[in-house]
Design a protein that fits this description.
Elements lengths: L1 E9 L2 E5 L4 H12 L8 E4 L19 H12 L3 E4 L15 E3 H5 L13 H13 L10 E5 L5 H8 L6 H14 L2 E5 L5 H5 L5 H4 L5 E3 L8 E5 L4 H13 L3 E5 L7 H15 L8 E5 L5 H8 L10 E5 L6 H6 L6 E3 L1 E10 L2 E5 L18 E7 L25 E4 L2 E6 L5 E5 L3 H11 L2 E5 L1 H12 L14 H11 L3 E7 L2 E7 L2 E2 H9 L9 H10 L3 E8 L6 E5 L6 E3 L6 E3 L11 E5 L6 H5 L1 H11 L7 E11 L6 E10 L11 E8 L6 H13 L4 E6 L6 H14 L2 E3 L2 E2 L3 E4 L1 H4 L16 H10 L2 H13 L4 H23 L1
Parallel strand pairs: 2-3, 2-4, 4-5, 6-7, 9-10, 9-11, 11-12, 31-32, 32-35
Antiparallel strand pairs: 1-14, 1-16, 8-13, 14-15, 15-19, 16-18, 17-18, 20-29, 21-22, 23-28, 24-25, 24-28, 26-27, 29-30, 30-31, 33-34
Length: 807
């Protein structure tokens, strides 16, 4: 029986709410206080006009309200979108099957079980059975905190959670009190900090039961939030910053004068905790959107801080902007309960996998029977390393239960419950990922013959792109292998005392040694080891060369064909093995084997493999790739698209993007790029906006005609799809990069003063920055920002000239 691993976590919900509706906001706090993982659910303001707190100063064209809400959804990647009022999700582009109303979320079935998720009844039962039913030496104080001043009650609900007195929340309150001994406790508003510092157990803390969090990038510093406790937008920001996974303390503006000691202690504790001897450390205080920095600075001036109490005043991250999320370490953290191994099976292209539930849900009668938790495929044998979650991959995750399986940033996600025990999807191999991608734009995809050759070569190399160094360590050796594939190897022979060159269909041992000796290589990589590698990975086949005594033609015989009697392939004469004068080492010869015997540089596969290896940086970046393929439109068969390769590259922190880089490539071994190659590039731009276009050749430079045509494509690709993201950034790679990657050490030193820059682009996997660098290097183009600046200067000069004319 096969098996695979799945990661279990609670449902991730996002609530659509009108910020002006504080009663609904209180309801959201209550609901999330009663569901497992509630602290990590998000709130999305449903707005019709852009509020002042979301507008950006000095920006002429503000974002639309739709882009703000859609941007938050993309950044949060919720499993379900919860409408506090029916119809709120209309126009947001979120799958309708995963949009639910608040009534559906809080509803119960005929057995009084939750409709969605795991609620507090299950958590209280787990804690009662394993802890609270026993007498404890140091029992944890379990409370439901309230403010003595009602105007702070909404803030208390945001910080600690609360249970209402109607419906499900009232039921949660009963279990919280009966199972855990929870007590209502009132605090003076300024004493809310004691709830955290004195170790009380409160509702929102309960929602994180047995959950672990980990950042996608760096761990964020603990922050203090300076805000207006009566401003709904500030409370939503406070909630969402903690939902990200941040540790955030509260500093309400009306209580700030009474919280000076608390604030100073926070600042000094943070600096002491970091304590670096080489870096000036600081504490972070976030200023709410509703507040002015001058107000915060004026307050800090009253604290009596000394020169060592360094404070960095920060802003609230815009969750709808990718650049803001990444630069502020505000990408939602990965939340995990457990990883389990489950049974799975593969039948053809289909993949059947069992679901898994938390151990504490055994014998549980409160959690949803169908949608209690989500499982995320964590490891599938032969599965794609990178799943492009921003693409339409519907056909990849088609399930017998509609829309219960989907692709998100976490990977392939499916819901699980007591009665929802398995899923059936298409096996998530790289080929099936790209097939689903083609399906999403109305095309059927197949590998081309050249793609099959490339795939066979990569398989021969043990499915490791980096082992391409065995055959592509230099231009000269690659051409030598190509001559072997054409059975046209030029060798030196001596006949009747005269030296001359002849063509042979194999490489004599001594000639092959000479070619390998000429390669630059580390000391440990001897000629013998190189030759052994070439034979081990089936690049070359060894054989014996014997001269026919009848026609004097020298023929090559594979190792398996060596026997007592040989037949000459030229004259068909049979002759015995020369036992009297057996052949020595120099009489052995080598031929290329299998896919390596394909002509024209393995149908172009060598250039494709070298390019993919370079972009994956010797497998330092996770990638999902496919070699040469062709796509045919499902309805209009005349519509076709071809490419030499495509790949998705896992984003790194340095790229400032959460999206896998999507690359479509055209490769030429030593030929020039033709009309059809440029036409394919234009097709790619129409079909796949956002994809990077890569043009690669083993030649060391482009001709003037190629440069001119590439400039036109590069300029079109520089159009901005969104702030900071070009429509189709273009990268040019030549033999300098493709062969340079296989040199000892690295090849970056060849770029002189640009060494550090090109190194950073390759190692970070930043294709847009790499593209602009190579455009300057090979197309003599200025960086896009300089071009835009030149245009602005010219427009300003024209405007000034017109103004001067009218005077």
């Amino acid at each position: 029986m096969e098996s695979t691993t799945v990661r279990i976590r609670p449902l991730r919900l996002a609530f659509l709410i009108k910020p002006s509706d504080k009663a609904a906001l209180q309801q959201v706090f209550e609901i999330n206080s009663g569901v497992w993982g509630g602290l990590y659910n998000f709130i999305i303001p449903h707005i019709k006009t852009l509020p002042k707190v979301y507008s950006e100063p000095y920006v002429r064209r503000q974002r639309s309200v739709l882009s703000v809400m859609k941007g938050m959804i993309e950044g949060i990647q919720p499993d379900f979108l919860v409408e506090m009022e029916a119809g709120m999700a209309t126009g947001l582009g979120f799958p309708t099957a995963r949009v639910i109303t608040v009534q559906q979320l809080t509803g119960r079935d005929e057995d009084n079980r939750a409709a969605y998720g795991v609620d507090m009844r299950s958590i209280c039962q787990e804690l009662w059975e394993n802890e609270f039913q026993f007498e404890q030496k140091k029992p944890r104080p379990v409370i439901m905190p309230h403010s003595k001043d009602p105007k702070y009650e909404l803030m208390f609900s945001c910080l600690f959670g609360s249970y209402g007195n109607k419906g499900g929340p009232a039921d949660f309150s009963r279990h919280y009190q009966e199972a855990l001994g929870g007590e209502h406790m009132e605090f003076e508003p300024e004493d809310f900090t004691s709830v955290f510092y004195e170790g009380y157990f409160f509702p929102l803390r309960l929602t994180t039961h047995e959950l672990k969090r980990s950042p996608r990038g760096r761990w964020a510093d603990t922050r203090l939030f300076f805000f207006d406790e009566n401003n709904a937008y500030d409370l939503i920001d406070l909630w969402n910053m903690r939902a990200i996974g941040w540790r955030v303390g509260a500093l309400p503006i009306s209580l700030a004068p009474k919280l000076q000691k608390y604030c100073v202690a926070f600042i000094r504790d943070e600096i002491r905790r970091k304590n670096s001897a080489t870096v000036m450390e600081h504490a972070r205080i976030v200023c709410a959107r509703s507040q002015k920095y001058e107000t915060l600075h004026a307050y800090l001036a009253t604290l009596g801080l000394n020169e060592h109490d360094q404070v960095l005043t920060d802003h609230v991250p815009n969750l709808w902007e990718e650049s803001s999320r990444i630069s502020n370490d505000a990408d939602p953290y990965v939340i995990t309960h457990a990883t389990k191994t489950v049974s799975s099976s593969t039948i053809g292209n289909g993949f059947h996998v069992d679901s898994a539930l938390p151990d504490f849900l055994e014998d549980d009668y409160g959690a949803s029977t169908m949608t209690a938790v989500v499982n995320i495929l964590d490891g599938v044998a032969g599965g794609a390393a990178v799943i492009p979650w921003q693409q339409n991959l519907t056909s990849l995750v088609h399930d017998f239960v509609e829309d219960k399986t989907f692709v998100s940033r976490d990977g392939i996600v499916f819901t699980a419950g007591e009665y929802s025990t398995s899923r059936h999807i298409r096996l998530p191999t790289a080929f099936n990922v790209f097939t689903a991608l083609a399906d999403g734009v109305g095309y059927k995809l197949n590998l081309s013959p050249a793609g099959q050759t490339a795939q066979q070569i990569i398989k021969a190399l043990g499915d490791h792109l980096s082992l391409s160094s065995i055959v592509m360590s230099s231009e000269k050796f690659l051409k030598y292998l190509n001559s072997l594939a054409h059975e046209d190897v030029e060798v030196d022979v001596t006949h009747d005392g005269e030296k001359k060159k002849i063509k042979k269909p194999f490489a004599p041992y001594n000639d092959l040694r000479r070619e390998l000796s000429a390669l630059a290589k580390p000391a440990y990589l001897t000629v013998e080891r190189q030759l052994s590698n070439l034979v081990t990975y089936n690049v070359l086949r060894p054989g014996l060369t014997l001269e026919c005594p009848e026609c004097h033609h020298t023929s090559w015989y594979a190792v398996g064909d060596i026997q007592k009697i040989f037949n000459c392939p030229r004259c068909s004469h049979a002759f015995p093995f020369p036992t009297g004068s057996p052949p020595d080492r120099g009489d052995w010869g080598y031929k290329v084997s299998g896919p390596f015997a394909a002509e024209k540089f393995a149908h172009g596969a060598y250039c494709v493999i070298a390019t993919m290896n370079l972009l994956s940086k010797d497998a330092r970046h996770k990638t999902t790739w496919i070699p040469s393929f062709e796509m045919v439109h499902k309805e209009d068969k005349k519509k076709r698209f071809e490419a030499d390769f495509s790949m998705f590259i896992e984003p790194s922190y340095a790229t400032k993007s959460s999206l896998p880089a999507f690359v479509i490539g055209e490769c030429k071994s030593f030929n020039t790029f033709e009309d059809r190659d440029f036409e394919r590039a234009r097709q790619a731009m129409e079909l796949f906006p956002g994809a990077a276009l890569c043009f690669a050749t083993f030649r060391d430079k482009l001709n003037p005609s190629e440069k001119r045509r590439f400039r036109a494509i590069a300029n079109a690709g520089r159009e901005l799809l969104s702030p900071g993201h070009q429509r189709n950034p273009v990268t040019i790679l030549t033999g300098k990069e493709l062969f340079g990657q296989y040199k000892m050490g690295d090849f970056y030193g060849e770029y002189g003063q640009d060494e550090r820059r090109i190194r950073r682009h390759f190692e970070d996997g930043d294709l847009q920055a790499l593209g602009e660098f190579t455009q300057g290097l090979y197309l003599d183009m200025k960086p896009a920002h300089e071009v835009r600046q030149d245009k602005r200067v010219k427009m300003a000069e024209k405007k000034k000239a017109k103004t001067d004319e009218t005077k």
